[in-house]
């Protein structure tokens, strides 16, 4: 019966999709392609009974298979994509974008640009309005490729500039690419979202032509506009721009402070700590200690010599002056239950000593100040250093022994 046929068709279709999924997960691309062929044939046979539009599933699965199948070619991929474009008007621009990405991954820049240009001229009644977001992305990526072409022309001029190279056609092409890129890049970064690459390219264009005020405004908007999602890179780009243009330390600190609040383990926190340590303001030096302690809370920094050196230097300064020991105590109180096992075990001491003498020295100093002269890490490293007759380890041992009362005050 018709009802039974529909139930069987639905069951077999779902089973076929399950087989395709299993084959893809096991990277059996040939097998997945065969099942997809059966799936598409079953849909075609059913057209006579009831119209079924080509599913987005076919497009996505087919694309994935063609990207990984050992016998697929760019010609086949292009052919498949064109079919998906003609059959799927409701997702025409999405297919165009994916086609562009595939062309770019294969280094076919000119073909990708042509594909974007054709997509930009596409019109299909109400569907054009419905796919407005996709159209904006199409224009944005075309702007990105215009920036790429501008960059190539710029490099040609810069390389030959000293030799008296003069080619008006190259310069005109460069300015033409600049205008086209600037218009499309400027439009996309007005929309709340994460547009890192587009922002970087647009700022590069503005800086090259000396429009620093506009570049600063773009970066400030990208970093501080509350409508945009939280994005650490936005603050990194602003900081790098300010640093390039010799802005005040106050501006640099402000940019990095927000980055610290968002990503306390960011690599720029070392620069931030060094900058704060050099400050004459007590508030900033206090923040510097907080920053470097926070960095070392993360496993990725456990064996970073520079980070431990920053902490060791600041702790040493505080201990010698015996001022602001409460800063150390405040930071240590929330860490004393887990840092000893995390950083200062005997196993870590052995490994650090074998692999990096400088690291073991800086960590031993920190361990000695925070945990005292009986700390396992400090005892092992100082013993090995003295045994090897390395002068700085003898100095380290004397320093920690001399200031051991500080440990008692810090530990509470």
TrEMBL record:
InterPro entries: SL1/TIF-IB_Component, TAF1A
A cellular component annotation (GO) from this entry: RNA polymerase I transcription regulator complex
A GO biological process held by the record: transcription by RNA polymerase I
Pfam families reported in the protein's UniProt record: TAF1_subA
Superkingdom classification of source: Eukaryota
Protein name (database record): TAF1A polymerase
């Amino acid at each position: 019966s018709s009802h039974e046929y529909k139930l069987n068709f639905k069951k077999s279709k779902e089973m076929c999709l399950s087989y395709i999924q299993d084959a893809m997960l096991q990277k059996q691309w040939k097998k997945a392609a065969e099942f997809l062929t059966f799936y598409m044939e079953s849909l075609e046979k059913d057209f006579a009974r009831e119209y079924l539009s080509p599913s987005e599933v076919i497009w996505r699965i087919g694309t994935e298979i063609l990207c990984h199948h050992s016998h697929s070619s760019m010609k086949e991929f292009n052919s498949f994509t064109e079919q998906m474009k003609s059959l799927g008007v409701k997702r025409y621009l999405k297919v165009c974008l994916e086609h562009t990405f595939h062309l770019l991954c294969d280094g076919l820049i000119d073909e990708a640009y042509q594909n974007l240009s054709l997509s930009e001229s596409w019109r299909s009644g109400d569907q054009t309005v419905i796919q407005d977001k996709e159209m904006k992305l199409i224009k944005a990526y075309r702007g990105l490729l215009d920036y790429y072409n501008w960059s190539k022309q710029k490099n040609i001029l810069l390389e030959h500039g000293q030799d008296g190279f003069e080619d008006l056609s190259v310069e005109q092409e460069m300015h033409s690419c600049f205008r086209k890129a600037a218009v499309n890049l400027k439009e996309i970064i007005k929309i709340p979202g994460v547009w890192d690459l587009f922002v970087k390219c647009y700022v590069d264009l503005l800086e090259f032509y000396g429009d620093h005020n506009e570049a600063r405004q773009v970066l400030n908007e990208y970093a501080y506009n509350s409508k945009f999602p939280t994005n650490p890179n936005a603050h990194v780009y602003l900081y790098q721009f300010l640093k390039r243009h010799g802005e005040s330390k106050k501006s640099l600190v402000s940019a990095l402070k927000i980055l610290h609040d968002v990503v306390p383990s960011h690599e720029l926190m070392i620069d931030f700590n060094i900058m704060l340590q050099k400050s004459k303001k007590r508030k900033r030096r206090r923040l510097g200690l907080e920053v470097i302690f926070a960095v070392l809370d993360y496993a990725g920094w456990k064996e970073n010599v520079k980070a431990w050196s920053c902490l060791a230097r600041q702790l040493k300064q505080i201990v010698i002056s015996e001022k602001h020991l409460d800063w150390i105590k405040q930071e240590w109180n929330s860490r004393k239950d887990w840092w000893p096992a995390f950083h200062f075990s005997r196993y870590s001491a052995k490994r650090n000593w074998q692999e990096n003498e400088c690291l073991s020295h800086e960590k031993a100093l920190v361990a000695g100040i925070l945990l005292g002269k009986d700390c396992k890490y400090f005892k092992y490293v100082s013993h090995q250093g003295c045994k090897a007759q390395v002068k700085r380890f003898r100095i380290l041992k004397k320093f920690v022994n001399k200031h051991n009362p500080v440990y008692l005050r810090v530990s509470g």
